[in-house]
Amino acid sequence: MNTTADHVRRTGRKRTPVLDTGHSRIRLSRTCRYHQNRATTFRVVSVSTVQTVLRDGKLQTALTTVGQISEIGYRKSPQQAKEQLDRYLNEALAIVRLIERAIDSGRPPKRLLSLNDLPKEMEVPEGNWDHLDLEAILFGIPLKQAEFSPTTTFGDKDELASTLKRADLRKPRKPVALNGFHLKFKPLQVGAETFYLPTGIYRVEHGWRLFLRHEEGVWHDYFKDSQSTIYESLIQAWGGLIGAMLARTAPRERLAPVTNQAAFTGIEGGNLLIGFRNGSWRIQLRYAQTDSRGKRYLVSLRYWRALELNDGELRQALRELAAMDSYRRYLIQKTGDPDIVVTRETSIPLKFFPGEPVVPILADDLIYSIEQRST
Predict the structure, then answer these.
(1) How far apart are alpha carbons 262 and 202 in whole angstroms?
(2) What is the pLDDT of residues 174-199, one digit of tens each?
(3) Percent helix, percent strand, percent coil in the chain, to nearest 5
(4) Are 152 and 177 in contact (CB under 8 A)?
(5) Which UniProt key words apply to this protein (predicted)?
């Protein structure tokens, strides 16, 4: 019976040089993964150990995963990702040495081993992994195009839409997904009443504003308070949002959540930040750009004291934000360089300025949002 470390090699199996750890029992593998509903595709590198266990009097081989490094983590910090890869490889080396020591003693393990089986007197070794290029490993395989499959809670979107239209938004509700759009219901107190607003509906001074991020952009609408009750206008707005979700395709990419819906600009990376400083409320419009490595570049477009904010300046600033975003997308598509950054000094042609902001935001809406925070 061959119980040496090399017996686990498969005859005729060719190693991929970029994945060769130098240890027959330590393997690197790579694949693409994605979240089916949002179709977010990313590459993953796995560190595994090839273990030998004695079962029913026979030596059997099993592959166990020590850890994984994702493309997402690498883009945020290549150095930390490489250090994490080295840690996983060192842990794998410790496990492998434990296995080989048991085999050499003539007592192969009867179960799969992990780092928890390492004796206290035995430290995790530090191997030499300088020859492994994590960037080459990760990006050495093509990124597969994921299939988009919009999710609906309970499966039937028409039946769910009919049920949701009859929902009482004065009572708590569990999160649902309709045609790929995910909804959470958060409480909002208006006067003496509490409403549970779905994602995409928010309160302004005399009505309800709506927005929906979909595959082709942003849909928005406004419902003024009815003469009878504000709940009646909320139900009308709710019906409008449901109709919009049924008529549009959900985004294929995972989008960052909107923390303050009243300040949503409609631009991914465009943020209206509201904060209290030096005795007064202040509002800042900022544009965040991310390069291919995940590094963020922040551009501050405008800064106001809340009491000085007016619709004209806000509208112009939001148009400028939309122009910066549109021009950057144009430059990236034209040059193929994902690391292009647009600044305040960049000369943007007039044709990139839209006639109106992507999502209309009024000064009174932001002031109302601030007043709600203050109460």
Answers:
(1) 6
(2) 999 999 999 999 999 998 999 999 99
(3) 30, 30, 40
(4) yes
(5) Plasmid
